[in-house]
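User: quick one, fold this
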Amino acid sequence: MVLCLQRRCIFAHPSGRIFDFLDRAFYSSGNNEIYPAFQFKPGAAIAVARRGGTTAALDALNKYFGIAQMPIAGSTYWNNVHGFVAEEASQDEEGMQTMRNLARNMVWMMRCFENGKKMEFHIRRRSIQNARTLSEEMTIADH
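Assistant:
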């Protein structure tokens, strides 16, 4: 599954429309703080802006992935490109190299996950309650 959303980065943050969509998509797929529709699927956010605000946008978008237990693909720098219009963004050589590296890394992650499934390597899914109990047991054992 690949989900690509595009919206301008205004006032150093993604638009409310993106957040509305993501809130509904993630909340509606949740089951006791587990998100099976997104869990263990790789994710990557990309931000494009004329100047600043891209790192704040990436931070806000990546939080959805982290909360849903999605591995986040990285690159050689922050996943951003600078430009006011598409022609300007394509002239951001460092940003475009970062995007190429991100694409390679995302493909690599997806292939690794697919190969893991073929080899019948499955991540055991535990409920939040089991994870909390395990965490409490570990804390008690540490003392």
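User: anything notable?
Assistant: The two ends are 44 Å apart (CA to CA).
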